[in-house]
């Protein structure tokens, strides 16, 4: 008998509006993310500014709305002033984070103008590792100030008259991590972040600030870090950051497929920590989450660690994970979790955009192509509009080594339109090796499902290159002309899910 699950939905029950910044990504000066990634002046598709048109086109197809820059670990030893002005006057320097000689050809102006040309919102980070209050405030002034002050006039002298109007700012990066240049304990960082953020908002009161949360839920200081840092910054900041990466370890496929349950618990725990600080302060303010690094990354099994990297003088091929259909299913499931927390997660960044654990890969002087993880992100960014509904899923559970009991089926549903009629995005994941029948229960709602996208897991090792990526796409990514509906009655629609699959469907609905 085919396993069964139910998903109950109704437009009267909504989690929250989907902020388009949920579909952000990340470009760090790491490996080939910048050089031979987004930027390669000698490439056949390069525009007059040296940026690859083929990569920009794929970025639009991916649906990326926002990009975080310049790091990441890179930002904690970055002197932004050295990366502005005439390129010929800039000096290369050793990036201590990734042990690479940074050529300094792309800096603040180049990135922000690329983002502006492509219609992408920038998310900037300031260095709170080796620098501090003055440099952070100066960068805000450089980006957002008007003529008549020192740093705004420098921007104008460098050829940019109008302010960039950068709204979203990160107060450093992963400052709880011993690997971070300028690592600090929670009290040191909390005090510095509060002073830097105060100065930055005095320059431009309209900006939003992201304070560093824990680098992962596995950090020994997790929870205590959030509460200590927010005790200093709660009244000043808007968001607290979360970072999480997932991988298959020791052939534990079931735990890997259950990764989104780990993400869900992580979000709930950070929300609880933030709300506890707000309660102690008797504050009605609600801190939200910037999940500004998330992805599948084979960190433990493939990456040798920063300290084991040789000093590189050219863009290094590091952290260029290649992905499988299985990885793509997990990425789709992680997106389901982000949608289901739309009320508390308005900002998220798939890390990263190009070459480095990325949905887009390139060859220097050659082609750009889509990795399997490209497809669930692009489909979700396209179909998830309006509000996330507060759905109720009833499904059997399976026991995993890493996450304990996890549901076999997960789901998210979005509704865009009027209260009594809307367009749906329906996202369903089957984590089991058997087909599953999912009964969508929609009492009082007339629902019609159309086509969409289905991604199924594979059992083959991923191989670098466009040929393998195209093979996975041909065999495991299916454009559905119609939904795989097996039965309909008044108030119910039954959908059949393939084994180990992620499915996104478009639909329409009206109140009956």
UniProtKB/TrEMBL annotation:
Its EC number is 3.2.1.55. It catalyses: Hydrolysis of terminal non-reducing alpha-L-arabinofuranoside residues in alpha-L-arabinosides. PANTHER family: ALPHA-L-ARABINOFURANOSIDASE C (PTHR43576:SF3), ALPHA-L-ARABINOFURANOSIDASE C-RELATED (PTHR43576). Keywords: Carbohydrate metabolism, Glycosidase, Hydrolase. Residues 292-501 form the Alpha-L-arabinofuranosidase C-terminal domain. It comes from Cellulomonas wangleii. InterPro entries: Alpha-L-AF_C, ASD1_cat, GH, Glyco_hydro_b. Homohexamer; trimer of dimers. Signal peptide: none annotated. This is non-reducing end alpha-L-arabinofuranosidase. It comes from the Bacteria. Belongs to the glycosyl hydrolase 51 family.
């Amino acid at each position: 008998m085919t396993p069964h699950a139910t998903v109950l939905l109704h437009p009267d029950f909504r989690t929250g509006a989907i902020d388009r910044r949920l579909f952000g990504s990340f470009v760090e000066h790491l490996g080939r993310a910048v050089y031979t990634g987004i930027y390669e002046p000698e490439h056949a598709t390069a525009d007059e500014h040296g940026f690859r048109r083929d990569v920009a086109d794929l970025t639009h197809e991916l649906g990326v709305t926002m990009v975080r820059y310049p790091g990441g670990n890179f930002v904690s030893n970055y002197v932004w002033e050295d990366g502005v002005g005439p390129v010929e006057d800039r000096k290369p320097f050793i990036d201590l984070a990734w042990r690479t000689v940074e050529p300094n050809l792309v800096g603040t102006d180049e990135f922000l103008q690329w983002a502006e040309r492509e219609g992408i919102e920038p998310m900037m980070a300031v260095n709170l590792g080796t620098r501090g209050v003055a440099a952070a405030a100066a960068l805000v002034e450089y980006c957002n100030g008007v003529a008549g002050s020192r740093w705004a006039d420098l921007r104008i002298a460098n050829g940019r008259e109008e302010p960039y109007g950068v709204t979203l700012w990160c107060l450093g990066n992963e400052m709880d991590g011993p690997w971070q240049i300028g690592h600090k304990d929670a009290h040191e960082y909390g005090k510095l972040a509060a002073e830097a953020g105060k100065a930055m908002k005095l320059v431009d009161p309209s900006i939003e600030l992201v304070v560093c949360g824990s680098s992962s839920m596995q950090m020994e200081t997790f929870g205590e870090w959030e509460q200590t840092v927010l005790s200093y910054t709660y009244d000043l900041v808007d968001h607290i950051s979360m970072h999480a990466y997932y991988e298959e370890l020791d052939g534990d496929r079931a735990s890997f497929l259950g990764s989104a349950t780990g993400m869900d618990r992580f979000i709930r725990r950070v929300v609880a920590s933030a709300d506890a600080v707000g309660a102690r302060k008797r504050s009605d303010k609600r801190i939200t989450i910037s999940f500004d690094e998330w992805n599948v990354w084979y960190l433990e099994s493939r990456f040798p660690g920063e300290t084991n990297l040789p000093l590189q003088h050219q863009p290094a091929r590091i952290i260029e994970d290649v992905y499988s259909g299985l990885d793509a299913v997990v990425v789709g499931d992680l997106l389901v979790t982000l949608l289901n927390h739309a009320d508390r997660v308005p900002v998220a960044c798939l890390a990263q955009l190009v070459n480095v654990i990325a949905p887009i890969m390139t060859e220097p002087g050659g082609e750009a192509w889509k990795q399997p993880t490209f497809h669930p992100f692009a489909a979700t960014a396209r179909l998830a509009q309006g509000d996330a509904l507060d759905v109720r899923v009833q499904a059997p559970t399976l026991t995993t080594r890493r996450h304990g009991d996890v549901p076999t089926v997960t789901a998210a549903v979005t509704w865009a339109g009027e209260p009594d009629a809307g367009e749906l995005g329906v996202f369903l994941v089957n984590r089991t090796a058997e087909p599953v029948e999912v009964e969508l229960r929609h009492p009082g709602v007339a629902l019609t499902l159309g086509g969409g996208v289905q991604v199924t897991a594979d059992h083959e090792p991923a191989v670098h290159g466009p040929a393998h990526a195209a093979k996975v796409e041909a065999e495991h990514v299916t454009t559905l002309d119609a939904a795989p509906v097996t039965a309909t009655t008044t108030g119910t629609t039954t959908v059949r899910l393939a084994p180990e699959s992620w499915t996104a469907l478009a639909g329409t609905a009206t109140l009956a």
